[in-house]
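Note on ligand handling. Small-molecule inputs were canonicalized before submission; formal charges were left as drawn, and no protonation-state enumeration was performed. Where a ligand contained multiple stereocentres, the stereochemistry in the source SMILES was retained. For S-adenosylmethionine, this procedure yielded the string shown in the input block below.
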Amino acid sequence: MLNFDFSILQCPITKESLNFLARENVSEIIQKFDTSFLKFDNINEGFVNESNTYFYPVFDDILLLLPVYALYIGKGEDSRGKMVFDKERVFNYYNEISYNTKNSLKIYEDSAKWVDFREVSSEYISNAFTKARRYLNPSGKYMLDIASGPIGLQEYVDLSENYEVRICADISVNALIQAKYNYSHREGIYICADITNIPLKENVCDAVLCQHTLYHIPKNEQKTAVEEMYRVAKPDTRIVIIYNWFYYGWFMNLSLFPIQLYRVARHLAGKVYVRLVNSKPRLYFFIHSRAWFKRSFEFSNSIGFYSWRSTNKYFMSIYIHKWLGGKRILNCLRRSEDKHPEFWGRFGDYPAIVIKK
Ligand SMILES: C[S@@+](CC[C@H](N)C(=O)[O-])C[C@H]1O[C@@H](n2cnc3c(N)ncnc32)[C@H](O)[C@@H]1O
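Structure output:
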């Protein structure tokens, strides 16, 4: 049962306010359409925009505010565009992925590709997941976790503990089903949405967090995504984006030289491969430089770069082992990241990009 202030929502297509539709009105609309493409049954509630042209279904308390899920109920022309190829492949990848359970939380089955779950690294990894808290306002009403995924790590879940409501938004409904499970002890709003077109009104959120997603957004849409996060944040709040510098990160380039070269080659080959071969969906990845962030926005002067984690999984697999004093090495690194966050935010692998609004 949905129970929140619907006036924070906006139609992602017409930008109008959305009105709630209860069960009796929804069945009237639904029966006129073939809704098998939605792949969800139990559509009992929904929203319509003010001019009554788009109907957005609600499935299991998850608001499907993604244009591809809207039903066109207007009389004129349907003004929806198509998803671009690179966005669609990320959409398909995250709709097809499975989930495992770890420490009673649902996580992506591919998490171990990016996160080192060994005991030797656990303290270091878990510390990184708490870092967004240092930059976000300490408390408030709405924390928007945009592209939340399943929020599958306790430290990540806890980032919103001082907020009244966590808005989990993601392009994948399956991810939101898992997020609802992982966050069932607290108040959440679950919205299937595109980060480049956030279906919230401006100045609504007391905090905006976007972890490990901006680099999966098509190159030419990353600017819009950042502007959208800025738009929905309240004045005097912060937007925190956890990004990856990949080949711009000199610490990894120097310590993993041949591996970084191989990764860059594989990355470029992958871009050609997905367009030539109709393979199963593969993840898209594009990295903008620090200089790009510094010149691309009206609010570029309010952007800071701090360390989230200076190393990646490849580094840890090679250098960090219990028998090689791995814990001690990671403790040193962690202390250095804490002492020199701007240095490591520039040269390390994962920066926390902090925007003050
Ligand atoms: C690598 S996961 C990160 C999940 C989570 N933030 C975390 O740190 O574990 C990327 C997430 O971004 C979502 N995503 C990808 N493209 C998106 C888009 N255009 N709009 C909203 N979410 C998107 C995916 O569905 C996926 O859940």
